[in-house]
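<derive_structure_tokens>
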Amino acid sequence: MIAALLFLSCKDIPRDNLLDPGNPNSYRQSVVLLEAFVNTANSYPYNQMALAALDSIKNQYQDQVVIVEYHRSAPDYQDSLDSPVFENLYQKYVGAFSPSQKGVPDIFINGTGSRVQGASSTQNVFHRLNPLLSDLVVERNYFTLEPGEIKWDGSKLNATCLIARLGDQPAEDLLLKMVPLRQINSASLKRVALDLKKSVSIAQLEAGEISTQKFGDIALDEKPDALVFYLSSD
């Protein structure tokens, strides 16, 4: 799982640079995707604790983590920011774990790589996330993602993303996904997913290949403040 809001040009990079796709020894440090399922309509503070912990994580790891916040409703707490597609994703993620306990806050790391559920305090969530992330961010990965041209016409989004295969091996059967985000306020609702939009399938990338992938004519009710692009195997 590679996540990015990364601005990096491959033009005129020296051939021995480890970020250059033309260098067979190229790689970059991992960027970790954190997907938090929360319900901020809940009168108890657990979800706010988890979101505050994610703020601390972002402050510590900066561009090495990308955070997406999905809202889901509960029988007694209807969250106005929820969506059936978020619920479907949550059920899919939960089903990968045994026992498959459900409940928010629930934070998934690189898809279903790891999971931190519940919150007794902000510090508790931070101290459970931190050792998992400290191991992941030092791993090598062999892709670079770069947002390309992005256009908004008032109701539809058109976006492109450049993907480069680093290292000396090809890659197959990739899915490039995009999540539009809104910052509703600066206190807690900073990275709220607007929707889950279509994926782009990539059959193969050769070593050193740079490919431009297009997400075209995506209908949205409002203009996003940011886009998250990430690679997934499913």
User: Anything to note?
Assistant: The longest strand covers residues 171-182.
